[in-house]
Amino acid sequence: MKKVIFLITGLIIFDCRIASSQNADHVEGGYFLKRIEYNIIVPGVTEADNMYNLDGKSILDRILFGRTNSPIEFVFEDSPEGSDEVSALRIVRNSRTDSYQLEIMRMPDLEKVYNAIRFLSTKVNKTVIPPELIQMISLEGRALLNEHNKKVDRIRLSDELYKPYRPERKTFQISNEFAEKLHNKIATLIDNFKAAGIPPLIADGYRVTFRIIVENEVWSLSIHMPQKNALIIANLCRQIIEDADVNKLNETKYIALLDGICLPP
Description:
Blueprint: H1 9-12, H2 16-20, E1 26-27, E2 32-38, E3 40-42, E4 51-52, H3 59-65, E5 72-77, E6 86-94, E7 99-107, H4 110-124, H5 131-134, H6 139-157, E8 169-174, H7 176-192, E9 195-196, E10 207-214, E11 217-224, H8 228-245, H9 251-260
Parallel strand pairs: 1-9
Antiparallel strand pairs: 2-11, 3-4, 5-6, 5-10, 6-7, 7-8, 10-11
Helix pairs in contact: 7-9
């Protein structure tokens, strides 16, 4: 696996007046998807019992993060021609102590990852029959189809199917200031994200996903080949993963870089 060194300091220090003159964050770039949904769909007696809205999460997200949505989640998914890895971070909050922890995960074997995703997709994807064809299926066949899809729903709500593929994680205690500044920058990025132009056909490249909790909502933004501030924040998240993996976290550096990212209010 090739190591990637990110030289991002020079990219972040720029004149905010220049940045604000650019209306679009993503110009004729790759595919993107922005979602805002309810975070919790069934509240539990305790926070651990909550049923979170996972509709916007991919199979890879379920492998990495399980059944919960966290205050911050970030996923980097490389192409086979790149550094051949999936890496992720999430920041979780302990409500009893009002403190935060950083978790990082790495999955260096992309072929193994994609084989797992292909297998799991056969277990968690419903069978959908177009309305114009459903009349051609017998009542017994429709009952079997409904039972199959109900079974799939039950499987999707469980975490047992995904656990065997979950990578080991490293956990670090971090400051509230660092966690909250990163959260606020990602929130502003997602809230103001705009695209312009017509997307080209891009067969290669990597994808990043930002996901955060904002009050009662879960916000997410997935981008194929990010640009501008999305690229800067993605590179910062990847740098955090790289540093944490060798136990060299430097919050002072990250906070300074976050302060240097100019985003509209």
